[in-house]
């Protein structure tokens, strides 16, 4: 027995002696407590393998941010001069010293890493709970979500060697908790049988009259009439529109054909979308497997952005980004392409308070990178009003993520047609992680003066405000498993507005001009007057009336809904 112990000691002694520089640990990240809805079910098994992600401190992100705004701000000498894949990666790539010392730490502990991002700033490392607990002075436990029974291994705090401070940005997943409702489709009402409306409308757009039936059922023709969206077929094959797909939500081609035959009879019902997959994703065409969210997103891109090449990007469950469940993977996937889509719409999200600040910042920086490449990134703002997914359990407002990130465009929801009003579920508010960006400072200041002392102390007055824009989000007609029905949610609004920008990009590219790219500097300046201001309604939550929709920007409907003719002029067409 003594000999066995001695041999074990001798085996680990060189390892300990070889890495004294990594022995001094300093607290790196911590949570105030267990997130709402979770309970600690006990210590995690010591031999359970954790697939950790090491986020390295990125290179010159401050300069990349400057470049992003230079190429995205109307009037800038660099406006529209989007960066190449190689140029972006050069800004993001960690310093050689950073990569070297992190690899030295790993080697000293018998670990090796796999690089999982184009710029080399994200590493994948596997180790048992026992080793992770020792290396990071962490107490890994099994946490159970009481409502769903979903379990995950997390810690409420962890430390890193002082020698890695300034080099290792975060270790994930550690203090980030999966939100069980984060990636559910943000559709407020389930599909329900209804008759196809097949409204002919005013396809030549010579009249702006909106059929009265649009007050109860929104179709592509209603959107064309309400917003002036053209039916003329796009012409530019290089102008791609990407649709994100998660949680085994499959977009069905047969349902799309049925949708088009009934609600867009002026275009071929055989119009198809392309498919890309990652993380083991797929897109089975068994009709019974059709997803409400996936069908909605595809039908209101293909069926609204007439002729724009549309790709469904299906993310499987073999995540490389851990508890982010593919959110970072899909961006890294697109960053790895030479020509990513000009517009990307995503109808999923989560509460900001479930994710660590460092990880949220890293994902936000990924949106910055893709925006600098010339891609407009749109996300649904969420369907819980000011409460995220907390319903009435919250005492302070719960912002959603990634809507709080300043490098993407958040889309809220409206309802009604004469006039449009804020949908009461429209997610909106102010980030607790990200500061208010300069492009919206004036608009937010005006709103806060109008708001006065209402909801004082319930939100961060200096945070990034969202949503930025809005579109119809209630009583939207779709087809699922060969059945017509209506749905609601900001997940309707994001693909609708994405289609508007995709059609504008088509005309810009045809005119020899660059695509719009990161939208917000344009929207909050020359683009603001090209939107329909929504001034009624609110988004209640947390046992309050939430925020009111007012003249100008508000955290319910943003700057407003699209006016295609005015937007054409605003973008220089």
What layout of secondary structure does this protein have?
Blueprint: H1 2-18, E1 25-30, E2 38-43, E3 49-56, H2 61-72, H3 85-92, H4 96-108, E4 114-115, E5 122-128, H5 129-135, E6 141-145, E7 151-154, E8 157-161, E9 168-172, H6 220-227, E10 241-245, H7 253-263, E11 274-278, H8 292-302, E12 310-315, H9 327-335, E13 343-346, E14 350-351, H10 357-372, E15 376-380, E16 400-401, E17 409-415, E18 421-422, E19 429-435, H11 441-451, E20 463-466, E21 469-472, E22 476-480, E23 483-487, H12 490-510, H13 520-523, E24 531-532, E25 561-562, H14 564-570
Parallel strand pairs: 10-12, 10-13, 11-12, 13-15, 15-17, 17-21
Antiparallel strand pairs: 1-8, 2-6, 3-5, 3-9, 4-5, 6-7, 14-16, 17-18, 19-20, 22-23, 24-25
Helix pairs in contact: 2-10, 7-8, 8-12, 9-10
The CATH homologous superfamily of the largest domain is named: Peptidase S8/S53 domain
Between the first and last Cα atoms, what is the distance in angstroms?
Answer: 83 Å
Question: What level of helicity do the residues show?
Answer: 25-40%
Number of strands: 25
How is the CATH topology of the largest domain named?
Answer: Rossmann fold
Q: Total number of helical segments?
A: 14
The SS-based structural class is alpha/beta
Rg calculated over all Cα atoms: 24 Å
Shape: globular
The percentage of residues in β strands lies in 15-25%
Biggest beta-sheet profile: 8 strands, mixed
Count of the domains: 2
